Amino acid sequence: MGTSHLHYIHPFVVMIMSGASGSIFDEFINTKSLFLNKEVLRHSYTPDYLPHRDEQIKSLAAILSAALRGETPSNVLIYGKTGTGKTAVARYVGKELENVGRNRNVPCHVIYLNCEIIDTQYRVLANLSKYFNRDVPMTGWPTDQVYHEFKNAIDQNKAVIIIILDEIDKLVRKGDEVLYNLSRINSELENARVSLIGISNDLKFTDYLDPRVRSSLGEEEIVFPPYDAHQLRDILEERAKLGFREGVLDDGVIPLCAAFAAQEHGDARKALDLLRIAGELAEREGAEKVTEKHVRMAQEKLEMDRIVEVIKTLPMHSKMLLFSVVCFESQGISNATSGEVYRVYREVCRELGVEPLTPRRITDLISELDMLGIISAKIVNKGRYGRTKEIHLTVPLESTKSVLLSDYRLSQLGDFSSARKKFTFQLHLQ
DNA sequence: CCTCCACCGGAACGTGAGGAGT
DNA sequence: ACTCCTCACGTTCCGGTGGAGG
Fold first, then answer.
1. CA distance from start to end of chain A
2. A387 in contact with nucleic chain B (CB within 7 A)
3. Which of A124, A229, A257, A274 has the fewest CB atoms lying closer than 10 Å?
4. pLDDT average, residue stretch A290-296
């Protein structure tokens, strides 16, 4: 793809290559960039050293080492929450196994598939075949033909093939047929051997599996506990050494990133995101150093991104409901009851020509928004005046407004303040 | 102490979309 | 092409409830 660009060399590039004005760029790069290598701060990067995962690495290596003796390694299931290093460990051990296998002349192939993207039997088999240079169209063939193609492809040579199925629970949701086929493929092979590594953050996903698949897949299980703040610190230190220029991180930066991430069930991914974004923010404002302030900004930015994404993808009625809550909020009312919110919601529906949902359904939607952390709904007893939920927004008001109004349907309600007046009027009637 | 408000939330059922089986 | 099944989303019905006010 990108190679065609090389045929045309931009004058600037010539300048740099000739060294004519390279210095001004050098200076720019050296003085302004706080990063040495931003890639290592991404969670997609597989580091050479994984702090506090020695035990898991050892377990996995012990299981896979069977491959080097020419045996078939047991299938493995790896459990752990997001950001506990499951993928990194699996890829790391896989890479090492391939290396050692190459040196000892024992061919090992480790194939990594992320089942969130490759989420059907067909796609899994097509991708596996592609790894062995078989030309399988991404769609069109009968599934069993692809299966045979793959089987023939791997059985050409004596080799151990290890398939890492990341986020395997996503695959299971669409049926466990692939897993059934893959887990018993060995009985149909002459030369090659296949073993599976499943990675899941859902501990209970095997409940949905066929018992035969479950026992075959879960021959070995490794659990990844969450990192604590201290361990996260070590991980960040390690990456920061490679990712940042020396001395650009204030002392408090890494501990603070670690602390934030530790609150979120010890998610190393989150910790790395915080650190990288803090660095980007510092760089953008031309600061010499990354400080705790930047980490807090990064935390806010991540939280904001999450909220915007959540609100954007909300179903229509939830948006209208949230719109109603915002109507109260922008008048400084932060203890609206569900009944009041419902009445405004009905007005919003009328205004947009949409059939309103029933109050029962709306209580469920309210609970959903509560779970998502967008609003808080707490049950209060007003004695004589009944029992209800008091509802208020728990995210920044202005941002919520603008996200809601970016929906073309809600923007028909016109400018927010005029809509507000209209609904305020309704409120006073009641 | 009893009532009764204004809603909560469980249970059962209806409906349409989408996938699997044949 | 057809049926059958499942699942998400909604509705209807209804029993339940903590405390202000009588």
1. 64
2. yes
3. A229
4. 95
Q: Which residue has the higher pLDDT, A46 or A257?
A: A257
The model's pLDDT over A362-411, given as tens digits with 9 standing for 90+, comes to 999 999 999 999 999 999 999 999 999 999 999 999 999 999 999 988 88
Span CA (A199) to C1' (C2), Å: 39
Cβ–Cβ < 8 Å for A227, A269: no
Helix (H) or strand (E) holding A312: helix A292-312
Protein-proximal positions, strand B, CB < 7 A: 3-11, 19-20
Concatenated DSSP letters for A213-229? HHHHHTSEEEEEPPP-H
Label residue A70 exposed, middle or buried (CB < 10 Å: 0-12, 13-18, 19+): exposed
Amino acid sitting at position A184:
R
Residue A140 tokens read as 């069109």
Are A214 and A231 spatial neighbours (Cβ–Cβ below 8 Å)?
no
The identity of residue A138, as a single letter, is M
- Distance of A230 CA from B13 C1′ (whole Å): 53
Which candidate, A26, A47, A30, A31, places its Cα nearest to that of A240? A47
User: What pLDDT sits at residue A5?
Assistant: 40
| Beta carbons of A124 and A174 less than 8 angstroms apart | no
Which residue minimizes Cα–C1' distance to C17?
A387
Alpha-carbon gap, residue A282 to A33, rounded angstroms: 10
pLDDT in tens, A337-359: 999 999 999 999 998 999 999 99
A339 touches strand C (CB under 7 A): no
Q: Are strands A387-393 and A375-381 parallel, antiparallel or unpaired?
A: antiparallel
